[in-house]
Amino acid sequence: MNLWLIKSEPDVFSIHDLAKAKGKTTHWEGVRNYQARNFLRAMKRGDRCLFYHSNAEPSAVAGVVEVVREAYADPTAWNPKSDYHDPKASPENPVWSMVDVKLLEIFPREIPLEELRGVKALAGMELLRRGSRLSVHPVTETEFRAIRKLAGCPA
Asked: What residues contact 140, with CB distance under 8 A and at least 6 apart?
């Protein structure tokens, strides 16, 4: 099993929106960065992801989701009415991918970005690199465990 972090702006789609979704499952669409897309394509069924609320006050890790469907074409890319439209994409050349995720847990408390910055075990985490804007990236088992511990989750 691989571990990841995925970002969403909570005013667009929060972990609480996911909790209300049918089957607590949704597709993770709209990724428009090639490196992040490649990470989506590397995800396997059963992989776990930290769900991160970005551009929030405060930005914070809010819980854990599981990949329940591996990468497939993101049709929002070829829909001209979509915020995620990409004129280079089409059904014949989808360009962009998405996965489906299911809610596993909402943390007892969200872990704010500034708190994460103070944790030595997280010093090398991609999320904490200055200037890093990737919306999908891998995390190590040590990072994953440290964040769950900070949130007050059982080991």
From this structure: 3, 125
The pLDDT value recorded for residue 132 is 83
What is d(CA 106, CA 153) in angstroms, rounded to the nearest whole number? Answer: 10
Question: For residues 112 and 109, what is the distance between their CA atoms, to the nearest angstrom?
Answer: 9
CA distance 59 to 53: 5
Domain positions in the chain are 3-150
The class (CATH top level) of 3-150 is alpha beta
> What are the structure tokens assigned to 30, written together?
């709209």
List, for residues 76-130, the tens digit of each pLDDT value: 999 999 999 999 998 898 999 999 999 999 999 999 999 999 999 999 999 999 8
Radius of gyration of the chain (CA): 15
